[in-house]
Amino acid sequence: MADRKKQKRPFPNLPEGLKQLEQAILSSVDPERMLVKLLNIVRSNSESKLTEAIQGESTWRDIELGHFKTLVESVNDWIWEVDTFGLYTYVSPRIKDLLGYEPSEVLGKTPFDFMPDEEAERVRKVFAEIARNRHPFYALENINRTRNGDLIVLETSGVPYFDSQGRFLGYQGVDRDITERMKVKDELRKSKDKLQNILDTSSDWIWEIDLTGQHIYSNPRLLDLLGYQPDEFIGKKYFEFLHSEDLKEVEEILPRLISEKKGWHGWVLRWRHKDGSYRYLESSAKPILNALNEVVGYSGSDRDITERKTNEMALLAATQAAESANQAKDLFLAKMSHEIRTPLTTIVGFGELLEDADLTPEQKKYLDAINTSGSALASLINDILDLSKAETGKLAIRPKSFRLQTLISKLVATQEPQIEAKNLSVHIHINHDVPDLLVGDQLRIQQVLLNLLGNAIKYTDKGSINITVSVIEETDLRVLLDLSIKDTGIGIPKDLQEHIFKPFAQAPGAGTNNHGGFGLGLTISRSLAVLMGGSIRLESGEGVGSTFHLVIPLQKKKGSLSEKTCQQGKSSLWTGPPLNILLAEDNPVNSQFIKIVLENMGHEVTVAENGKVALDTLNAKTFDLALMDIQMPVMTGQDVLHVIRELEKITGKRLLVIALTAYALIGDQEKYLNMGFDGYLSKPFKAKELVNELVRVVKPRGPSL
Ligand code: ADP
């Protein structure tokens, strides 16, 4: 071609238009083809066009393009033509925008001249193959370098073209700049790769199903979860793998979700693993919608929670086992306490009755031993029940008004014999700023203080015990008190000081053999203190003595206590007229004891050995009061009371009924009073307690007694 370009001009003095034509022919890569074209133009186009060309007003190419010129030059794509050598014979002006070159700079060059070497090499091979067969080609992507060095991607399409004799002349075609599109495509590929990586490496099983329930996609995690390769699973329906119980749930819920176009979150279902076992999978999914906004399937992810679920179930089973063990313990305690209390009532009761009998000193000693052991056993049972109630939160606090001074002096009075026996001195010091009238559960405060004082006496062989009450904090309505009991006894080693508050814990030096006790007192005391919103604190040194502080918040009471409240807790003797009493009690020994106590007070007693007999007796005779055992054969005390109260709705009368129960664990006072009983006595009880309850129940009835 270079040789051809160097050819000498054969007609040096041609007019401008012909010179141009001559130039076009000579500079053409294929002058022969040019001449053919020229002849065609002469033959088919108007003479005037040729004249235009000869006069230099338009180029021969303009003439050739004719009325397509405007179109070719204005389309966004770059239009070109190459000859059989691959040299550009025509390029539309759009080349300037794409590659930055003027068309004249490009003519005579090949497309490969604008490509980086490696790319040129690649495209040349592809193109050679196409050109050999004179095939058209479409959308051949190739990278080009622009005039200023940038790389752009062109998409080239071309068709071979031939002269009228069918001779191959080259290719004509278009190039389109697809750099932007390629960038987008590249971004798309990158994000697709990213997504694929996530899908491949996710610890969740990611899936897609269509509306027939068929799996259309699954990531590889499926293998770990259910033992299947994704390929094995595609096409399978989810319901083949679901646990039958869960399948029912899915069949119920899924249609609704589909109709509402909703997904789900955290749905736990059991899937069958390839090995036959079931796995708990927690699933979340969203519906796939088509262009018409209809649900066509679901895509989502599942996570294996079998281990968590198994642990949860084990925990639940353990909790249930613990709960039922606890219930069994409660039941056992209730049963045992009932069984122990019933005979104990007799022992304590008859022991008490015998005290007034004429006994020899020897017999008196035996009786004392029986009475002491009976009381110890009764208090142990109370302690165990209290502890059990405190542990299960069944201990109730009942605040009432009381005098602190009275409470403490009574407390010390109950311990007088033990204090005297050990020759100890007890000092009470109540600071002057401590209010005397207070509101709190005096019985529980007494119980705690009694335990602390009892211990102080127990573990002190000589010296003194100081009871001090002081105010820690005070507001208009409330006061925080420190009630301390300080002894000069054996003391408690530092390392045991926390330990002794645990059930059955005792300091080795304070063994049961020497001092008695079961190691429950402090545990109960602390529980009670906490229940009352307070605490118990200890200061002690071995051999120096101990100080226990009960710190509790109490309400201050303005004014004075009513007569009735002040009298509460005092032992009373029966002073009223004799009563006609029905005693419903199935245990003959117990009923014998109670009957004797009541008859000694001057009352008339009729015994009924079960609930049914009690009702019959009540129908036949009028009574002032009934003592009703709860646990009775044929009809329980509760059932009898129910019938009595129902009948009273018709008769308009009201019988006073006192409940007797050995089930102190579950039957506390409040429960029975709420049931409609007027009074409550927990077995074993002393004659004094029976009288007190009679007085309490009968008194409010008025002046007739
Ligand atoms: P108990 O006195 O029935 O053994 P407690 O729970 O009341 O049970 O007391 C637990 C242990 O704490 C006692 O066994 C004893 O070792 C120790 N303890 C309690 N109070 C004192 C005290 N005032 N002095 C010395 N040791 C005490």
What does this entry look like structurally?
Strands 11, 12, 13, 14, 15, 16 and 17 form a seven-stranded mixed beta sheet that branches. The longest helix is centred in the middle third of the chain and has 50 residues, at 306-355. Helices cover 45% and strands 23% of the residues. The model is unreliable at 1-9 and 562-572 (pLDDT under 50). It folds into four domains: 4-178, Beta-Lactamase; 202-304, PAS domain (Beta-Lactamase, 2-Layer Sandwich), CATH 3.30.450.20; 396-563, Histidine kinase-like ATPase, C-terminal domain (Heat Shock Protein 90, 2-Layer Sandwich), CATH 3.30.565.10; 580-698, Rossmann fold (3-Layer(aba) Sandwich), CATH 3.40.50. The chain is of the alpha+beta class. Helix 2 packs across helix 4, helix 14 (306-355) packs across helix 22 (588-600) and helix 18 (442-458) packs antiparallel against helix 20 (521-531). It contains 26 helices and 22 strands. It is elongated, with a radius of gyration of 55 Å. Bound molecules: adenosine-5'-diphosphate.
